[in-house]
Amino acid sequence: MAARVAVVGANGRMGRLVTRIIEAAEDLETHALIGSGDSLDAIAGADVVVDVTVSHVSQGVVERAIAERIPIVVGTSGWSRDRVAALAPLLGEEPASAVLVIPNFSIGSVLATSFAALASRYFDSIEIVEAHHAGKVDSPSGTAVRTAELIGEARSGIGPVAAPHIDQRARGEQVWSIPIHSLRMAGVVAKQDVLFGGTGETLTISHETLSSDAYEAGILVAVRAAPTVRGIVVGLDKLIDLRT
Question: Please, are residues 169 and 101 in contact by the beta-carbon 8 Å criterion?
Fold first, then answer.
Protein backbone atom coordinates (compact mmCIF):
# COMPACT_ATOMS: atom_id res chain seq x y z
CA MET A 1 0.00 0.00 0.00
CA ALA A 2 1.29 3.47 -0.89
CA ALA A 3 2.17 5.80 1.98
CA ARG A 4 -0.22 8.75 2.26
CA VAL A 5 1.59 12.11 2.33
CA ALA A 6 0.15 15.46 3.42
CA VAL A 7 2.01 18.49 2.06
CA VAL A 8 1.75 21.69 4.10
CA GLY A 9 2.80 24.71 2.08
CA ALA A 10 1.63 23.01 -1.08
CA ASN A 11 1.17 26.24 -3.03
CA GLY A 12 4.78 27.37 -2.70
CA ARG A 13 7.78 26.54 -4.88
CA MET A 14 8.94 23.65 -2.73
CA GLY A 15 5.38 22.51 -2.08
CA ARG A 16 4.68 22.15 -5.79
CA LEU A 17 7.96 20.26 -6.23
CA VAL A 18 7.21 17.87 -3.35
CA THR A 19 3.72 17.26 -4.72
CA ARG A 20 5.05 16.45 -8.19
CA ILE A 21 7.59 14.01 -6.74
CA ILE A 22 5.01 12.26 -4.56
CA GLU A 23 2.56 11.89 -7.43
CA ALA A 24 5.27 10.35 -9.61
CA ALA A 25 6.35 7.79 -7.01
CA GLU A 26 4.58 4.41 -7.09
CA ASP A 27 4.97 3.87 -3.33
CA LEU A 28 3.59 7.29 -2.31
CA GLU A 29 0.27 9.06 -2.78
CA THR A 30 -1.08 12.52 -1.98
CA HIS A 31 -3.26 12.55 1.13
CA ALA A 32 -3.81 16.32 1.38
CA LEU A 33 -2.47 19.51 -0.17
CA ILE A 34 -2.65 22.27 2.43
CA GLY A 35 -2.16 25.94 1.58
CA SER A 36 -1.85 29.01 3.79
CA GLY A 37 -5.62 29.40 4.15
CA ASP A 38 -6.42 25.74 4.79
CA SER A 39 -6.96 23.94 8.08
CA LEU A 40 -4.34 21.59 9.46
CA ASP A 41 -7.17 19.19 10.26
CA ALA A 42 -6.55 17.73 6.82
CA ILE A 43 -3.34 16.04 7.98
CA ALA A 44 -5.39 13.55 10.03
CA GLY A 45 -4.98 10.07 8.61
CA ALA A 46 -1.74 10.80 6.77
CA ASP A 47 1.24 8.47 7.09
CA VAL A 48 3.72 11.34 6.65
CA VAL A 49 3.51 15.13 6.73
CA VAL A 50 5.92 17.30 4.73
CA ASP A 51 6.28 20.88 5.99
CA VAL A 52 7.57 23.37 3.41
CA THR A 53 6.02 26.55 4.79
CA VAL A 54 7.83 29.54 6.33
CA SER A 55 9.62 29.81 9.65
CA HIS A 56 6.86 31.40 11.73
CA VAL A 57 4.27 28.90 10.47
CA SER A 58 6.43 25.79 10.67
CA GLN A 59 6.37 25.57 14.48
CA GLY A 60 2.61 25.12 14.58
CA VAL A 61 2.68 22.54 11.80
CA VAL A 62 5.30 20.46 13.59
CA GLU A 63 3.49 20.66 16.93
CA ARG A 64 0.24 19.55 15.28
CA ALA A 65 1.94 16.58 13.61
CA ILE A 66 3.49 15.55 16.92
CA ALA A 67 0.08 15.78 18.61
CA GLU A 68 -1.42 13.60 15.87
CA ARG A 69 1.51 11.17 16.14
CA ILE A 70 2.29 11.53 12.46
CA PRO A 71 5.96 11.61 11.38
CA ILE A 72 6.89 14.91 9.77
CA VAL A 73 9.62 15.94 7.34
CA VAL A 74 10.53 19.60 7.89
CA GLY A 75 12.00 21.31 4.85
CA THR A 76 11.41 24.82 6.19
CA SER A 77 14.41 26.99 7.09
CA GLY A 78 14.87 28.61 10.47
CA TRP A 79 15.14 25.53 12.69
CA SER A 80 18.13 26.33 14.89
CA ARG A 81 19.67 23.80 17.26
CA ASP A 82 17.86 25.35 20.25
CA ARG A 83 14.54 25.38 18.44
CA VAL A 84 14.88 21.73 17.50
CA ALA A 85 15.88 20.78 21.04
CA ALA A 86 12.68 22.36 22.37
CA LEU A 87 10.67 19.70 20.51
CA ALA A 88 12.04 16.86 22.65
CA PRO A 89 9.59 17.37 25.56
CA LEU A 90 6.67 17.31 23.09
CA LEU A 91 7.78 13.95 21.73
CA GLY A 92 8.36 12.48 25.18
CA GLU A 93 10.85 9.88 26.37
CA GLU A 94 9.41 7.21 24.08
CA PRO A 95 8.45 9.05 20.88
CA ALA A 96 5.52 7.66 18.94
CA SER A 97 6.61 9.40 15.74
CA ALA A 98 9.50 11.34 14.23
CA VAL A 99 10.49 14.88 13.34
CA LEU A 100 13.01 14.93 10.48
CA VAL A 101 14.51 18.41 10.07
CA ILE A 102 16.21 18.55 6.66
CA PRO A 103 18.08 21.84 6.01
CA ASN A 104 18.86 20.76 2.44
CA PHE A 105 17.46 17.91 0.35
CA SER A 106 20.35 17.95 -2.13
CA ILE A 107 22.63 14.91 -1.86
CA GLY A 108 25.52 16.98 -3.23
CA SER A 109 24.99 19.67 -0.62
CA VAL A 110 24.96 17.09 2.17
CA LEU A 111 28.23 15.65 0.89
CA ALA A 112 29.83 19.11 0.62
CA THR A 113 28.81 19.91 4.20
CA SER A 114 30.26 16.61 5.41
CA PHE A 115 33.52 17.32 3.56
CA ALA A 116 33.63 20.78 5.16
CA ALA A 117 33.23 19.33 8.66
CA LEU A 118 36.10 16.94 7.96
CA ALA A 119 38.38 19.69 6.61
CA SER A 120 37.60 22.04 9.51
CA ARG A 121 39.87 20.11 11.84
CA TYR A 122 42.89 21.19 9.80
CA PHE A 123 42.21 24.92 9.37
CA ASP A 124 41.61 27.67 11.92
CA SER A 125 40.42 30.30 9.43
CA ILE A 126 36.96 29.38 8.08
CA GLU A 127 34.13 31.41 6.56
CA ILE A 128 30.93 30.56 4.67
CA VAL A 129 29.42 32.43 1.72
CA GLU A 130 25.93 31.33 0.70
CA ALA A 131 23.72 32.65 -2.09
CA HIS A 132 20.05 32.05 -2.82
CA HIS A 133 17.33 33.48 -5.04
CA ALA A 134 16.04 36.95 -4.22
CA GLY A 135 12.75 35.56 -2.91
CA LYS A 136 14.31 33.64 -0.01
CA VAL A 137 13.20 35.56 3.06
CA ASP A 138 15.54 34.15 5.72
CA SER A 139 19.28 34.43 6.14
CA PRO A 140 21.61 32.83 6.82
CA SER A 141 20.26 29.75 5.12
CA GLY A 142 19.46 26.60 7.04
CA THR A 143 22.18 24.82 5.10
CA ALA A 144 24.79 27.39 6.16
CA VAL A 145 23.71 27.16 9.78
CA ARG A 146 23.83 23.37 9.65
CA THR A 147 27.30 23.52 8.07
CA ALA A 148 28.54 25.83 10.84
CA GLU A 149 27.04 23.54 13.50
CA LEU A 150 28.75 20.46 12.07
CA ILE A 151 32.04 22.33 11.81
CA GLY A 152 31.65 23.42 15.44
CA GLU A 153 31.05 19.82 16.50
CA ALA A 154 34.04 18.60 14.49
CA ARG A 155 36.22 21.22 16.19
CA SER A 156 34.86 20.64 19.70
CA GLY A 157 38.27 19.59 20.98
CA ILE A 158 40.14 22.28 19.04
CA GLY A 159 38.28 25.50 19.79
CA PRO A 160 36.64 28.31 17.82
CA VAL A 161 37.89 29.46 14.45
CA ALA A 162 39.87 32.66 13.95
CA ALA A 163 37.46 35.42 12.91
CA PRO A 164 39.07 38.85 13.22
CA HIS A 165 37.18 42.16 13.24
CA ILE A 166 33.86 40.61 14.24
CA ASP A 167 32.68 44.04 15.46
CA GLN A 168 32.31 45.14 11.82
CA ARG A 169 28.89 44.47 10.28
CA ALA A 170 30.40 43.51 6.94
CA ARG A 171 32.08 40.53 8.61
CA GLY A 172 28.85 38.52 8.48
CA GLU A 173 26.75 36.79 11.12
CA GLN A 174 28.62 34.39 13.36
CA VAL A 175 27.32 30.87 13.96
CA TRP A 176 29.57 28.75 16.17
CA SER A 177 32.19 31.50 15.72
CA ILE A 178 32.12 31.07 11.91
CA PRO A 179 31.22 34.18 9.84
CA ILE A 180 28.41 33.53 7.35
CA HIS A 181 27.80 35.93 4.46
CA SER A 182 24.42 35.73 2.71
CA LEU A 183 23.64 36.87 -0.84
CA ARG A 184 20.06 37.13 -2.16
CA MET A 185 20.17 37.64 -5.92
CA ALA A 186 18.15 37.17 -9.08
CA GLY A 187 19.41 34.36 -11.28
CA VAL A 188 20.61 32.20 -8.38
CA VAL A 189 19.01 28.97 -7.16
CA ALA A 190 21.37 28.03 -4.32
CA LYS A 191 25.12 28.08 -3.83
CA GLN A 192 27.43 27.66 -0.86
CA ASP A 193 31.19 28.07 -0.56
CA VAL A 194 33.04 27.10 2.60
CA LEU A 195 36.44 28.77 2.55
CA PHE A 196 39.40 27.54 4.59
CA GLY A 197 42.64 29.48 5.07
CA GLY A 198 45.92 28.01 6.24
CA THR A 199 49.62 28.70 6.08
CA GLY A 200 50.45 29.26 2.42
CA GLU A 201 47.21 27.77 1.11
CA THR A 202 43.45 28.06 0.86
CA LEU A 203 40.76 25.46 0.27
CA THR A 204 37.22 26.04 -1.00
CA ILE A 205 34.48 23.44 -0.84
CA SER A 206 31.73 24.60 -3.18
CA HIS A 207 28.30 23.30 -4.05
CA GLU A 208 25.80 24.86 -6.45
CA THR A 209 22.22 23.84 -7.09
CA LEU A 210 21.41 24.47 -10.74
CA SER A 211 17.75 23.49 -10.56
CA SER A 212 15.25 22.24 -8.02
CA ASP A 213 15.53 18.78 -9.58
CA ALA A 214 18.57 18.34 -7.33
CA TYR A 215 16.23 17.97 -4.35
CA GLU A 216 14.25 15.04 -5.72
CA ALA A 217 16.42 12.17 -4.46
CA GLY A 218 16.73 13.67 -0.98
CA ILE A 219 13.00 14.34 -0.68
CA LEU A 220 12.26 10.72 -1.51
CA VAL A 221 14.86 9.48 1.00
CA ALA A 222 13.37 11.60 3.79
CA VAL A 223 9.70 10.87 3.07
CA ARG A 224 10.30 7.13 2.77
CA ALA A 225 12.40 7.04 5.95
CA ALA A 226 10.00 9.08 8.11
CA PRO A 227 7.60 6.25 9.10
CA THR A 228 10.48 3.98 10.10
CA VAL A 229 12.30 6.25 12.59
CA ARG A 230 11.42 7.74 15.96
CA GLY A 231 12.42 10.94 17.70
CA ILE A 232 14.29 13.91 16.25
CA VAL A 233 16.57 13.53 13.25
CA VAL A 234 18.48 16.53 11.89
CA GLY A 235 20.07 16.43 8.47
CA LEU A 236 19.79 14.19 5.44
CA ASP A 237 23.27 12.92 6.35
CA LYS A 238 21.63 10.87 9.11
CA LEU A 239 19.58 8.99 6.53
CA ILE A 240 22.24 8.11 3.96
CA ASP A 241 25.45 6.13 4.25
CA LEU A 242 28.42 8.52 4.46
CA ARG A 243 30.96 5.97 5.66
CA THR A 244 34.29 6.12 3.83
Answer: no
Which CATH architecture describes the domain 3-104+213-238?
Answer: 3-Layer(aba) Sandwich (3.40)
Query: pLDDT at position 244, please?
Result: 62
Between CA 150 and CA 235 the distance in angstroms is 10
Q: What class is the 107-210 domain?
A: alpha beta
Same fold across 3-104+213-238 and 107-210: no
Query: What are the tens digits of pLDDT across the range 141-185?
Result: 999 999 999 999 999 999 999 999 999 999 999 999 999 999 999
What pLDDT sits at residue 4?
Answer: 98
For residue 32, how far is the Cα from the chain centroid?
23
| E runs forming strands in the chain | 3-8, 28-34, 48-51, 72-74, 98-101, 125-133, 173-175, 178-185, 190-198, 201-209, 231-234
Q: Which of the residues are catalytic? A: 132, 136
Residue extents of the structural domains in the chain: 3-104+213-238, 107-210
CA dist., res. 88 & res. 102, Å (int) = 17
In the predicted model, residues of the chain with pLDDT beneath 70 are: 244
